[in-house]
Amino acid sequence: MEERRREARTVELLEIREINRQPVNGSYLLDHSPLGAKLESSLSFAPGDGVEFSYLRPGEAQETCRWGQVIWVIPAPDKPGRYLMGVEFVLLD
Predict the structure, then answer these.
(1) What's the angle, vertex CA 46, arms to CA 28 and CA 87, rounded to 5?
(2) How far, CA to CA in Å, does 48 sit from each of 13, 38, 45, 85, 87?
(3) Structural domains of the chain sorted by starting position, each given as residue range(s) with its CATH number in brackets
(4) Which pTM value belongs to this model?
(5) Can you tell me the mean pLDDT for 11-15?
(6) How far apart are CA 62 and CA 37, in angstroms?
């Protein structure tokens, strides 16, 4: 399978604290790059949906907030009711 990513991904399991400014439990950032991320959540989005999410890195006092557009969504293998989604970040000028 050909790798199509433009940037290398960093694998990092971080708990997402808010999605679209609503507190969430059990949603995770699985990997990320400067251009996008893969999330896991019980919330389902559709390709094209806008998503804003925040997370706290270990040792940091301030949450990181990212904005993007959902590019793809699939059911999480072996995890009924959960979804994996790819998010392309919106780059702000």
Answers:
(1) 45
(2) 24, 15, 9, 11, 9
(3) 10-89 (2.40.10.220)
(4) 0.85
(5) 91
(6) 19
- Please count the residues of the chain: 93
Convert the pLDDT of each residue in 48-81 to its tens digit: 999 999 999 888 999 999 999 999 999 999 999 9
**Tokens 């604290």, residue?**
17
Q: What six digits make up the tokens of 48?
A: 């094209």
Q: CA 82 to CA 43: how far, in whole Å?
A: 7
Distance CA 28, CA 42 (A): 10
CA distance 16 to 5: 23
Q: Which run of H or of E encompasses 6?
A: none
